[in-house]
Amino acid sequence: MPPPCIKNPYLKDASEVDTDPFGNQRSKCAGFFPAIIGGDGLSRYHTDFHEIEQIGTGHFSRVFKVLKRIDGCLYAVKHSTRPLHQETERRKALMEVQALAALGSHENTVGYYSSWFENEQLYIQMELCDYSLSRKSSTQLFTEGEFLRAMHQMAKALQFIHEKGIVHLDVKPDNVYVKNGVYKLGDFGCATLLNKNLPVEEGDARYMPQEILNENYDHLDKVDIFSLGVTIYELIRGSPLPESGPQFLREGKLPLLAGYSLQFQNLLKVMVDHDPVRRPSAKELVENPIFDKASKNTKA
């Protein structure tokens, strides 16, 4: 029997697609699909891909640069570091895949290609990017214009996912990638629904606003805006945030940033406003005239 069909909660019409073609046989095969290796018993990962090198690691997963044997192209494959024995663990791991699949493609999000379970581990085939804006990057070399370009493209990514009713909840330098000069938002492991129909599990606490720490989930889209503002601030700062996060930013107190225009600093300040209602939406951020000015200066 093939694996059971899983309803994708991130699709806007998911409530209408409530039919399980396997009916009451779901429980009989629920534990079957995570252990799937392949029809002939071979590893799909090692059959389809040539592993080149490890390019990333997290608490629960590792990411590898791979060459797909059949098309000769390079990809990133992320897989869990430990077996997902429990049904609840597998369901939780699937949330990232379901969010990626429901979103579809956008220039400013990391592309999703395929996913599968193998030896009780989840594998996700994704677009390979050049690097991320982690603390390891030479971010101190960024100009205000480059920061604005990164911010604008991330705002476009957030507008795209928010309009699909999804929030990211883990925007930070490690999850902002660059490919051929284009900024892309990745790692949707904490993504949830804007309407709060799914559990909320926020990402890195250092980038979270006070309302999330207080378990107030009324403005989840504005959490992403705050996190983007803190991300840009950290890149300007050029050094890691304190482990407890920047409490002064949570209070809306942005330090004076020498060498940056007042307009730019005012935009950052409103993005990290302690009141989520006063933060701009992703759409309002995208349409801010500061980006038109930056674009003209770049062309000039």
TrEMBL record:
Which GO MF terms does the UniProt record name? ATP binding; metal ion binding; non-membrane spanning protein tyrosine kinase activity; protein serine/threonine kinase activity
| Keyword flag 4Fe-4S | no
Xref: SMART domains: S_TKc
Q: Which residues bind ATP?
A: 78
Q: What class of enzyme is it?
A: transferase
- Ranges where the Protein kinase domain occurs: 49-291
Protein name stated in the entry? Wee1-like protein kinase
Native organism is Gossypium raimondii
